């Protein structure tokens, strides 16, 4: 079960409702988030990924089936599930839980696949 209360205002709703009270600089940031909310959400995930040894990370979306598929290159023997102790990752998992296959702790279902071809 997600820790996110569906009755609480979302970040975007909070930004819109408070926009008129923001300083000029805050309005620039708020405007960027409102205009680019999808890429802004991934910024924190991207920064965290780099800090934890992920060199390449892609998320694909199949519009017809509404399925997400992610692939990542990570240094060492660790994997994406090893990031589950990080509060940012847990929050992201909770946020995304309704649109992806998840385990009971909302971590994404991870299926090991045999690599059959790789070219660099």
Report on the structure:
The protein has 120 residues and is of the alpha+beta class. 38% of the residues lie in helices and 14% in strands. It has four helices and two strands; from the N terminus they run αααββα. A two-stranded antiparallel sheet has the order 1-2. A hairpin with a 4-residue loop joins strand 1 and strand 2. Helix 2 packs across helix 3. The chain is elongated, with a radius of gyration of 17 Å. The N and C termini lie far apart (40 Å). The relative contact order is 0.11. The mean pLDDT is 75.
Helix content: 25-40%
How far is it from the N-terminal to the C-terminal residue, by CA?
Answer: 40 Å
Compute the number of strand runs. 2
Largest sheet: 2 strands, antiparallel
Q: Give the class from helix and strand content and strand pairing.
A: alpha+beta
In round numbers, the mean pLDDT is 75
What is the string of helix and strand elements? HHHEEH
Rg calculated over all Cα atoms:
17 Å
Shape: elongated
Taking pLDDT < 50 over at least 5 consecutive residues as the criterion, the unreliable ranges are: none
Number of discrete helical segments: 4
- Placed side by side, the strands forming the largest sheet appear as 1-2
Q: Indicate the proportion of strand residues.
A: 5-15%
Quick recap:
Helix content is 38%, strand content 14%. With 120 residues, it is an alpha+beta fold.
Supply the key terms:
two-stranded antiparallel ribbon, 2 strands
What's the SSE blueprint?
Elements: H1 11-18, H2 24-35, H3 37-51, E1 54-62, E2 67-74, H4 87-96
Antiparallel strand pairs: 1-2
